[in-house]
Structure formats: C-alpha cells, structure tokens
C-alpha cells in the first residue's frame, strides 16, 4: 500500500485586508452619530453691541440671567445665594477664570447688581458682559 505524504497545513491566520475599511466605517459611524452639546443656558435675548471679542471656552464660566430673573451657571439653574460658593470652587480650579454674563436685555439691573455683589464676596473680579454683535453700517 503506497503512503501519501501531506505537506499541506491549514493556515491559522486572520485575514486583515479589510481591517482598515472596517475601522474607517466605524470612525464615520461614530462621527455621524455623536452629539456635541453646547451650553444652552436660559433662553435670553442679548442686547446688541458694536464691537465684540472672543474668549476661549475653558477660561470662561457663564452666568445666564433670563428676563424673569432666573440664574443658570454653566447649564445648572442655581439660587442667588449659591453663586458665590460655586464661583469660589471654579476659581480654585482656574484662578484666571472670567465670569461672563449672558443676560436678557429685559433682565432687571437690580438682579445683575445682586449677582455682582456675590461675585465680589469671593473676589471674582474678571467679568465680561455678552452681547450679540451688530456691525455698524
């Protein structure tokens, strides 16, 4: 009886030729389905300004004030008495923090003054008031 020799062995490889295609499709899928949430704050109508300056987001804490006088700090509705404590914590993390007001044009000035007094108590003196930019004709 003749003996047959087997020189063929089954290859134990994982095909990687389409691995780049799969990674690329996954990347596109996650880019398309990811939601980037910007800070919404309270619904306000900002006053108009003739000049504007951009500030980096990581250097700013936003205080939103709507026409009813409600306060929001970085998308969290807060009471007036807690503004100082929240800002003190944020100033501890970033001493160069700028507090930016985004107040409705119908917001009461007394409310803004009360907030400013709370900020003074914790030495948050770098303050910016936001407005919608309206270039002069």
Descriptive account of the structure:
Helices cover about 30% and strands about 20% of the residues. The chain is an alpha/beta fold and about 140 residues long. It has a domain at about 50-135: Nucleotidyltransferase, domain 5 (2-Layer Sandwich), CATH 3.30.420. The chain has a five-stranded mixed β-sheet, covered by helices on one side. The chain has a two-stranded parallel ribbon with strand order 1-7. β5, α3 (about 110-120) and β6 form a beta-alpha-beta unit. The N and C termini lie far apart (about 105 Å). The mean pLDDT is about 80.
Identify the notable features of this structure and list them briefly.
137 residues, alpha/beta, Nucleotidyltransferase, domain 5, five-stranded mixed sheet, two-stranded parallel ribbon, 3 helices, 28% helix, 18% strand, elongated
What topology does this entry show?
Layout (H helix, E strand, L loop, with lengths): L18 H15 L14 E2 L10 E6 L5 E3 L2 E3 L4 H11 L4 E6 L5 H13 L5 E3 L2 E2 L4
Parallel strand pairs: 1-7, 2-5, 5-6
Antiparallel strand pairs: 2-3, 3-4
